[in-house]
Write a structure and sequence with these properties.
alpha+beta; Arc Repressor Mutant, subunit A; Jelly Rolls; 4 domains; 7-stranded mixed sheet; 14 helices; 24% strand
Length: 439
């Protein structure tokens, strides 16, 4: 879609009146009201991008649509067709992936192997239970978790040779237990290196290798942690992107935002590295959806919510449109649950503050920025994601308080009107950038 700025501006002017009709058109095409809302919002964003880009009209191009409502309805239908086409491609991909997995299934222990593992592990656990607490903990920390002996000694406040003796005692006890399980007889006294080699061999016979003691339990953990799909997503300045994930969830990125996505066997994880994102999560009770934004963790099963990182304040804003989310602020702060229409601001250090949700969650999807108890510096930083030219402010001007709503497509008009509301002046540079100074 390539339109002139005037053409896009005319369509945007009539978008509000046409919104209910567009929503009905998109819902008839998709069969889902939530998907229809996303498509209509996507149509608005595309038009806003055209208007922000200030595209010059081509020769002979009309400056305004003759019937804006009809043009917008056609645009909504085309987006719905694209949506269905993407869904079909995704379904084909998932079906092919499932067929490949079925044709070449991973190795799973059969019944006899499983029973052997359980018997060996029972012998090992019984032997570990009979050890002194420090020797048992040292063996698990070193052989299961891979912690170096020196770190264990330092953490427990004992000498390194004390931990070495504990490990020798544990190995001897476990080797004897494995010999009894395997029906063999331990040889005469052997030096430590020989005992370690014997223990490794016995663990190998048990099918456990040297990587851990609880292999049959770790099989389930391996499946839960195995990455099934991953991607690094990002959006540029003035660009809002929409991504449909293989599980059916939808992730929308605000401008200049970055996220890492990993779909695992037992969970779905997104790291919001920068900017803001909105999530429409497909419900899957066996795989919770977890968003990590700095130290803040948000967990859901199926819902629609927005998350935004606010760098100037080192805060994270969580806004829930529907469903419920669990927010863990980190730094020892208590977890909070949010429902539809609720929002939470998580400050650095784990302190939380309930805030009012003015309108829809993640209003940038509708082309708006909502400022509440903000400073001019924060507003400019937010607008910088969309502005084609740099806008800066002096230290004193950046501290001035601002509130209200800014239409992203009308950011230039908002900027030009600032001297009427604040004691500032605008200095326009030759390269098109703007600097704001206080009076």
């Amino acid at each position: 879609m390539s339109l002139s700025a005037d053409f896009a501006r005319s369509l945007l002017a009539g978008f509000g009146d046409a919104y209910p009709h567009l929503l009905r058109v998109a819902q008839r095409s998709t069969g889902c009201r939530d998907a229809a809302r996303d498509l209509v919002h996507d149509a608005w964003l595309r038009l806003a991008e055209q208007e922000l880009g200030a595209v010059q009209p081509a020769a002979g191009e009309e400056q305004a649509p003759r019937d804006a409502a009809a043009y917008l309805a056609t645009l909504a239908r085309h987006l719905a067709l694209d949506h269905r086409r993407r869904d079909r491609l995704l379904a084909d991909y998932l079906r092919d992936a499932a067929a490949i997995r079925q044709a070449a299934p991973p190795h799973v222990p059969d019944t006899a192997e499983h029973l052997m593992y359980r018997q060996a592990l029972a012998a090992l656990e019984q032997a570990l239970a009979g050890l002194p607490e420090r020797a048992r903990a040292a063996f698990v920390d070193h052989h299961v978790h891979g912690e170096p002996q020196a770190d264990i000694a330092r953490r427990r406040g004992v000498a390194l040779n004390t931990i070495e003796r504990d490990l020798m005692q544990a190995r001897a006890c476990i080797e004897d237990a494995l010999h009894r399980w395997h029906g063999t007889t331990p040889g005469a006294a052997r030096h430590a290196a020989g005992r370690r080699r014997s223990l490794t061999a016995l663990l190998g016979v048990a099918g456990l290798g040297g990587a851990g003691l609880l292999a049959w339990r770790q099989w389930g953990a391996y499946q839960a942690d195995a990455v099934q799909w991953q991607a690094a997503l990002e959006s540029g300045r003035g660009q809002l992107t929409r991504h449909t994930l293989p599980d059916g969830s939808v992730l929308q990125l605000d401008a200049e935002s970055r996220a890492d996505v990993r779909l695992l066997g037992g969970s779905r994880r997104v790291g919001l590295l920068e900017g803001a994102a909105f999530f429409a999560v497909a419900r899957d009770e066996e795989r919770p959806f977890v968003v990590q934004a700095g130290a803040v963790r948000i967990t859901v099963l199926g819902t629609r919510f927005g998350v935004e990182r606010v760098p100037l304040r080192d805060e994270v804003l969580v806004q829930v449109e529907s469903g419920r989310v669990r927010v863990e602020p980190g730094a020892g702060g208590p977890a909070r649950e949010l429902g539809a229409g609720e929002a939470l601001r998580v400050h650095s250090g784990g302190r939380t503050e309930s805030v009012s949700l003015r309108g829809d969650a993640a209003p940038w999807r509708q082309g708006e920025i909502v400022l509440a108890d903000a400073t001019l510096g924060e507003a400019l930083q937010r607008l910088a994601r969309y502005a084609p030219r740099a806008v800066t402010a002096s230290t004193q001007a950046a501290r001035l308080p601002v509130s209200g709503r800014i239409r992203i497509a009308q950011a230039g008009e908002w900027l030009a009107a600032l001297p009427l509301a604040l004691p500032v002046r605008l200095l326009r540079r030759a390269d098109g950038s703007v600097h704001i100074e206080s009076l």
